Amino acid sequence: MPSSRSRSNDLPAVLAISSHVARGCVGNRAIVPALQALGHQVWAVPTVLLPWHPGHGPGRRIAIGDDEFADLLDELASARWAGEIGAVISGYMADAGQADAVGRLVDALKSLNSELLFCCDPVIGDGTSLDKGRLYVDETVACAIRDELVPRADVITPNRFELSWLSGQDMVASDREFAKAAGDLGAELTVATSMPGLDPGRIANHLLGRGEAVCAEHELTAQAPNGSGDLLCALLTSRLVCNHDPAEALRLASASVAQIVARAVNAGSDELLLEGDFDSITSPMTEVVMRPLRV
After folding, report:
1. pLDDT, tens digit, for every residue of 242-261?
2. What is the C-alpha to C-alpha distance for residues 18 and 124, in angstroms, rounded to an integer?
3. Which CATH class is domain 13-292?
């Protein structure tokens, strides 16, 4: 399998597997433009087709059959260009069988490239507490992600609820609780989003792994549009696959997301506004406070 790249730049391609909406910037509609703005070629695979994010109200859901989905991933794994792929991102899974197929794909690509980076964004639910939070996928899907994808992942990017659910712990709040949950899941690098900041009105992303235990904290923007988790996963994956230090990758990704979310809210938008805002992706100016975790 040839590994040379036919593109003019030397950045690895990224294979992004997540939902596709006709309107809005969630799932692959957030992941793909962010990666392209940073110079990556993107291979994009939808797990489901939706008119808009379900948070906006009911809409037609077009499912992709398990067999067709698996056949497509098998073809990608054996494609003559497969050596271009330096990273795989998995996001929203519509069916448990899709998680199985993604796991097999990752195994196949890692057999071609042992340095391939697999980032699993376990998109399964949200909430500020386990009793008040919710899974918004079927539990069989959440379990398949936990059992098939998280153990294979080099990087996982759950939100606070997802980290707690996946690790079987009470709602993670402190630095030490985060470290225990991350350790139980066992990924080389864990980034937990939507963690509480040190002060009210602030929000944090925690990182543990590769010798780092740090937090990136910034102001909380109320009524933020959906898609910030997808966006952070994409930006973090890009920085990591380009060999940035994990703490710096977290700082840059967090700053970009905070800036893009704030601009969308200030504009009165119900969706992230990625078009025409490449500077926020490539060179964010929002202040992010980095601090060591007390683990």
Report:
1. 999 999 999 999 999 999 99
2. 12
3. alpha beta
